[in-house]
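Form 7-S
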Amino acid sequence: MIYYLILPLFCLLLIVVQTAISDILFFGKIGIEISLVVTIYAGFRLDVLRGGLLCLSLGFLLDCMSGSISGFYTLIYILIYFVSMLASQRVVPDKLIFIGFFSLLCVLFEALMILVMHPLIYEGDIFRHVVNTSIPQALVIGIISPAVFTTFRRVEIVLGGRNAYPIK
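Output:
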């Protein structure tokens, strides 16, 4: 029950921290979406109710804070969560190379969704901007996601995760 009470606070804190890290390290040029890595982690490790609520909360708060199309990040995060959940059932998601590559693909999927949806809602072409920011962002996320997964896994083990097993 405590999970559901602290979930919105955790999500808000995560979004604030990821925004601060992006501003400090990259001067706001690219964003490091740790929330996307958390969504992928939820798809790999959490049950449907907990993971779905986590992704819904993260997407909703990103929608509120980014000022983008209403429900856009919520839709993307829920889609990525379900794709991650399906991928975890088909392959062994414990390999760090798979985690990095899958995270890279998820960031590129998000960029593709932005590229497709933005001209439908707003006017103007943002192709060059999306390509210039999303490729470095995807590479950074692909590199740091195995470390983030390992950290989350260790925290889960310390907190007494019921199905804790090590990442190889």
